[in-house]
Amino acid sequence: MSDALDRLFEGLPERLTVDQLAHVLGLGDRTITYRWLRDGIVPAIKLGKTWLILRDDIKEHLRSQYNVPHSTDNDGAHTNEE
């Protein structure tokens, strides 16, 4: 998991621009990116009219959002073990 994220962010600066964030997230529309920032879907800090988007905060947030399959018990029913 983390190897793929590391490769995705490889070569990017510590602070990302809105365009860089949109590119990494695969969002073709900057309007969606700004909406996600405004609504807190991705972590960032708004300073006046400028967004401070920290690469490592985005990586950490994405890692926490991985959907991991739940294990199943013997009869095939899903369990919620953690």
UniProtKB/TrEMBL annotation:
Family annotation (InterPro entries): DNA-bd_dom_put_sf, HTH_17, SinI_DNA-bd
Domain of life of the organism encoding this protein: Bacteria
One protein family per Pfam: HTH_17
Residues of the signal peptide: none
Helix-turn-helix domain location: 16-65
SUPFAM superfamilies from the UniProt entry: Putative DNA-binding domain (SSF46955)
Name of the protein this chain belongs to: Helix-turn-helix domain-containing protein
The species this protein was found in: Kocuria oceani
